[in-house]
Amino acid sequence: MRIKQQRGLTLVEVLAVLVIFSIISILLMSILGSSTSTHQKQLTKNKELQNTSIVLKLITKDFRKSVKFDEATYTFTTIVDGSETEQTYVLSDDKITRNGETIATDIEEFELSNQESSSTLTIRIKSKHDQEIRTELTSRKKHNRNN
Known about the structure:
Number of strands: 9
Largest sheet: 6 strands, mixed
Number of helices: 1
Distance between the termini: 109 Å
Mean pLDDT: 87
Radius of gyration: 30 Å
Shape: rod-shaped
Number of domains: 1
C-alpha cells in the first residue's frame, strides 16, 4: 500500500492561523493605544510642571531682589543701578505674563499674597487640569507693601 504525501494546508489550519494572528494583532494594538495615551498624559503633566517651575523661579528671583511688592497689581519693584525696575505678573486668557511676556500657559488660577507685617509671600498656581501648587517664600528683608 502506498501512502500519499500531503502538500498544502487545509482550510481548518488556515482559519486557525488567522484567528491566532487576529488575537495577537488586537492585543498589540490595545497595548500600543494604551501606551500612546499614557505618553500624551505624561507630556501634559510635564508641560504643566515646567510652566509652574518657570513661574516659581521668576517670582522667587523677583521677590528676593525686590524692595517693594504691590499685592493689588502683583508688581515687584527692584532697584537696579540706582533706578527702579518693575516686574508685573498678570493672569489673562489662561496665561501668566511677566511684563507682557508669556511665561506659562493653561493656568486657571494664579494668586500672590503677602502677609501683613511679614516678609512672606504666598504663591498659588492652579492649572486647567486641577493640579495646584502652593508655596511660601520668606525673605530676610522686610518689603514695603502697597495696597
